[in-house]
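Module 6 notes. Inverse folding takes a fixed backbone as the condition and produces residue identities as the prediction. Think of it as a translation problem where the source language is geometry and the target language is the twenty amino acids. Below is one complete input and output pair. Work through it position by position during the lab.
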């Protein structure tokens, strides 16, 4: 429902700004996704733009470049509060003031401590009329991973699983290629391309020898172009508590970076693309502390962590209440008794302990379905 202070015209232009912001979903990491639209006093669109890449111009700057002198006394619709500090680029609040923008409508207030409310304050002090909250939910959802990192010092963790209808991931002998169809696997590539990093475990590398990268040829033409502008693959992150990995696996043999978490330096890893970070063990001294790993990833500005791992690692993430979202692909197949389970979570003895999820959407992709869930607050610790 539109707030009373906003008109249908305001909603129309903010929807366009959100549409523009979404174009940056493949390339803005670690920055948020932002779109901006400038409309003159007669209601004509005079400028628009979106943030495309960290270190480059912000959305407001692109829109102002198009609008030029027509920005004077105009209204700017922007999906995220304009920045007020100098980072890699000058403050957008200053640019809007210099252009003599009369009114700024903001969807989301920026939770980044470097910005939070200060951009709004600067605009108001300069005499600009500022209004917030138009289509806030849509704008917040666009940057939920960025906001989560800013508020909780952890990435937004999305676990991807694929199974048969009876919840199995492989036959008893380990054969699993392919449970889902080509269209579902292409959809996974698209979601990988939108992530900052891809997390997996040593078990997956040892068994499947994956590359864990994005294959641009499987993306849509629009996504290929946007992803190419990013100029880098998502960071590949591996959990190897027992130093079982070595340079022999193909993930270490290309130019794209790999970050390995372990407890002690692994001398078998020497490729130039590989970095190792040591973290403490969990309370039982059996595996690496996953909370420590997430903290380290937040420190290097990982917003959206995409997890493609085996049953043990995904189970541990669920057991430690570290999962924010589950993306489940299901194929119309039944693998039967003895087939491998979806994820190995701990034994529960009471229904109050169950992990409670909320279905966000369910879509058919080829012959398969993709269901997206978020973990309900009662089942998750931030």
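Target side of the pair, the amino acids:
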């Amino acid at each position: 429902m539109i707030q009373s202070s906003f008109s249908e015209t305001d909603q129309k232009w903010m929807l366009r700004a959100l549409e523009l912001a979404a174009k940056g979903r493949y390339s803005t990491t670690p920055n948020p996704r932002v779109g901006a639209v400038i409309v003159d006093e007669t209601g004509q669109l005079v400028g628009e733009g979106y943030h495309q890449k960290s270190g480059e111009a912000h959305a407001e700057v692109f829109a102002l470049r198009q609008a030029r002198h027509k920005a004077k006394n105009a209204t700017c619709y922007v999906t995220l509060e304009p920045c007020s500090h100098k980072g890699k680029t000058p403050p957008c609040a200053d640019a809007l003031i210099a252009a003599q923008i009369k009114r700024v409508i903001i969807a989301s207030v920026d939770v980044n401590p470097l910005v939070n409310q200060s951009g709004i304050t600067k605009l108001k002090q300069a005499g600009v009329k500022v209004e917030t909250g138009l289509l806030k939910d849509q704008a917040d959802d666009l940057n939920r991973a960025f906001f989560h990192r800013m508020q909780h010092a952890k990435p937004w963790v999305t676990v991807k699983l694929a199974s048969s209808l009876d919840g199995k991931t492989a036959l008893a002998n380990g054969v699993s290629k392919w449970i889902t169809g080509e269209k579902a696997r292409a959809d996974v590539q698209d979601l990988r391309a939108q992530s900052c990093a891809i997390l997996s475990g040593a078990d997956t590398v040892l068994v499947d020898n994956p590359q864990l990268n994005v294959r641009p040829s499987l993306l849509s033409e629009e996504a290929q172009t946007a992803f190419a502008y990013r100029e880098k693959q998502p960071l590949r992150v591996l959990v190897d508590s027992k130093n079982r990995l070595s340079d022999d696996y193909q993930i270490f043999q290309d130019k794209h970076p790999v970050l390995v978490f372990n407890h002690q330096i692994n001398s078998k890893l020497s490729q130039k693309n590989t970095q190792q970070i040591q973290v403490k063990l969990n309370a039982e001294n059996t595996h690496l502390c996953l909370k420590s790993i997430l903290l380290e990833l937040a420190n290097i500005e990982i917003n959206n962590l995409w997890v493609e791992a085996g049953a043990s690692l995904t189970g541990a993430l669920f057991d430690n209440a570290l999962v924010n979202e589950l993306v489940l692909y299901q194929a119309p197949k039944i693998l039967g008794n003895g087939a491998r389970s979806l994820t190995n979570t701990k034994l529960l003895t009471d229904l109050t302990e169950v992990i409670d999820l909320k279905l966000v959407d369910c879509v058919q992709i080829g012959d398969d379905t993709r269901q997206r869930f978020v973990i309900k607050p009662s089942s998750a610790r931030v």
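Reference fact for the lab report: The mean pLDDT is 92.
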